[in-house]
Amino acid sequence: MNTKINVISHLPLSMSDIARLIAEATEELGEQAQGLTRLELLHMLRRLIRAGAEAVRAEEYSVSFSEAAWASVEARSGLRPTTLRDLRHFVRRMLRVGGVPERSLRAMGTQECRNLLENAFGNSSHSFNKGRAILHSIFAYGLRREWCRDNPVSRIESRRIQEKEIVPLSLQEVRRLEQTVQLPEHQDMRFSLHLLLYNGVRPQEVARLSEHHILVEQKRVIIPPCGSKTGGGRVVPLRKRKQLRGVPLCIPRNWQQRWRLLRRAAGFLFWQPDVCRHTFASYHAAYFRNLGELQLEMGHRSIDLLRSRYLNLPRVAHARKYWELE
């Protein structure tokens, strides 16, 4: 008892302050404090104090934003190497913003998170939205670890992105690529180019293919879930198969570098990402006129994306040449 009195004596509180706090605590209990005996009321107040102390400790317990960010990255270590590399790159960009790394995760609010995204990713809507998704995942991880009370990023809207038109390759540009890939130093890319132009396979998906994904007898190529952009697998038919006679159906090593060298050798100083996929979709739609089939081959969940983004249709005569000439 004397120990407790000594502790109280060291607090910057008077007895009237303590009495006022007890009165306020009793008022907070409301009807729960009515009709209790002295001992019952003391027991109730002790429970209130303990519960309040635990709540305060939990509220003040947190980690720095830097610690939370890297912990959330480590928790997702099962991602593909390229995805994990991009994730770390975006985290580093956020940590370059002054004052952010050491900030308590629990103390960060919506406006501070919005300022963080704007400072880290500038005027790029694509980067802003991707950064927002990663920041949201950091706070979601923090919630599970009880490092924060809520996810302030949930109240930040994604930016609207105005998609730029991607013009399909012309027949002349397609021929330049096909002629260049016949050169001895580029022949190991013949099958890869075929998959890009006539099967709508994404460059990243081509680079991840292995021999057991290529079904020669069934005339199909499997895009496995682990190798696709969206995480959904699909099977695509090998079109224009006569062009593949005598071509080794394999993917060379250092694929990204080999693909870059082929484009440069064909005279493409500027290259629009995914233009081969847009070329495939546009010529397919103009010639076969079967959006349902095209949707399956592209691996889209609906036809709406085809209609809104991919269908920059060439003339039917050009589409006929694209598919019929061997």
Q: Which keywords apply here?
A:
326 residues; mainly alpha; hpI Integrase, Chain A; three-stranded antiparallel sheet; 3 strands
Mean pLDDT: 86
Q: Based on CA inertia axes, which overall geometry fits?
A: elongated
- Number of DSSP-assigned strands: 3
Low-confidence stretches: 1-5
Please give the CATH architecture of the largest domain.
Orthogonal Bundle
Beta content comes to: under 5%
Q: Report the structural category.
A: mainly alpha
Q: Would you state the CATH class of the largest domain?
A: Mainly Alpha
Describe the sheet with the most strands: 3 strands, antiparallel
> How do the SSEs run, as a string of H and E?
HHHHHHHHHHEEEHHHHH
How many domain regions? Answer: 3
Residue share in helix: 40-55%
How far is it from the N-terminal to the C-terminal residue, by CA?
A: 98 Å
Rg over CA atoms: 31 Å
Numbering strands along the chain, what is their spatial order in the largest sheet? 1-2-3
CATH T-level topology of the largest domain: hpI Integrase, Chain A
Number of helices: 15
CATH H level, superfamily name of the largest domain? Intergrase catalytic core
